Amino acid sequence: MGSRNITAQVQEDVIDRLDGEADQLGMSRSEYVRQHLHVGRRVMQASGQLDRNFLATVAEDGTDHIEGDMATSLDDIEDEILDALPADARRAMGPEEVREAVFGSDHEQLQHIKNGLDRLNEQGDITITADAESYKSD
């Protein structure tokens, strides 16, 4: 599947934040922005979940989270798969390639889970058990 560049001007402080967040996840800026762009597309497509005014508010005030039910549906996963599959009939993808294209590599998946667990722990929503490799909900 081919790719094309998108060019956008972003303020330096935003780029600094993006770089810092990407570094924390062990990602390049491009990879990090691509993932956020993809997630943003999904959020904006969520039926009835968000409206333009709310999105403008989130963009203006730098809100780091969105309240409400944002669970991934089977339709979202199917859309992700369709987006990942190549249109070229001469190129096919196996299930493992599709899994990695949709959800990232094993390392990326584990890193996302670890980051989520760390944030939940910092917020007091979960507790790390004595063996430091297990978690329980508070």
TrEMBL record:
Keywords from the UniProt entry: Plasmid
InterPro entries named in the record: Arc_rbn_hlx_hlx
A biological-process GO annotation: regulation of DNA-templated transcription
Entry protein name: Ribbon-helix-helix protein, CopG family
